[in-house]
Design goal:
Length: 241
């Protein structure tokens, strides 16, 4: 059974932050390819005069590092060892948590479930890594693990081997997730001030072949995108949330 690592992150996920859109994302690869991918990212950093421990972040994209970030985006699209799944809540103003008897925190993890269920196959096994966000994360991660396992009839947890929180500054593939979801968030918030960021978004559009405005087909593997709206609430089944 093939084993995969999934690296998850989010942008503008807080209920009362000033940002209109919320983005979740995951980059995944075969576990056996992890070292090769980490080494290649380190090589790209060194090529551009950056230290191996330099943290890749959307917030660091600037004119002076534009070539570095372009090469990272092209690396992602050029390798057949990495895939991405993004979920965009286009307008958090549409959320009606009281009507659906949920907290924003519960909704956040429902969205994580929605994102991950497309990636997971019953014929493989997965190690899922989330960026640490707060001190309450352990219980939420355990709940997410249980719900995903139950949904996939993985009661022995042979498919979902582990879900755990990690520090993003120590995991370069999690940083690639940050870069891709940062681009989606910037795009959906309608921002244009940073030319280097706009150019990266245009590069992602060209390389993916998508406008980023609409959901891709669920079967899309390389750059899979789901744009969520309130009308999708009907038919939700989260088996435990």
């Amino acid at each position: 059974m093939t084993e995969y690592n999934i690296y998850c992150d989010e942008s503008c996920h807080l209920e009362y932050d000033p940002h209109k859109s919320m983005v979740l994302g995951a980059v995944w690869c075969a576990k056996e390819d992890k070292k090769q991918l980490f080494d290649r990212i380190k090589e790209i950093k060194q090529k551009h005069g950056l230290k191996p421990e330099f943290e890749i972040k959307w917030n660091k994209v600037s004119k002076s590092k534009a070539d570095f970030y372009r090469e990272l985006i092209n690396f992602f699209f050029d390798t057949d060892k990495l895939n991405f799944r993004g979920l965009v809540v286009a307008d958090k103003g549409e959320l009606e948590h009281g009507r659906y008897d949920q907290t924003h925190d519960q909704f956040y993890y429902k969205m994580y479930f929605d994102m991950l269920k497309i990636i997971i196959s019953p014929h493989a096994s997965y190690y899922i890594y989330l960026d640490i966000k707060d001190t309450q994360g352990f219980e939420k991660v355990q709940k997410l693990h249980d719900v995903i396992c139950n949904n996939h009839y993985d009661f022995s947890q042979s498919v979902i081997k582990r879900i755990q929180e990690v520090r993003s500054d120590e995991v370069s593939l999690l940083q690639i997730t940050d870069l891709l979801i940062g681009a989606l968030s910037y795009f959906y918030r309608g921002l244009t001030e940073n030319k280097a960021k706009v150019e990266l978004i245009d590069l992602i559009k060209r390389r993916s072949g998508y406008s980023l405005m609409k959901s891709t087909l669920p079967s899309e593997r390389k750059f899979n995108l789901f744009v969520w709206h309130s009308g999708y609430r009907r038919g939700w089944n989260y088996g435990g949330f």
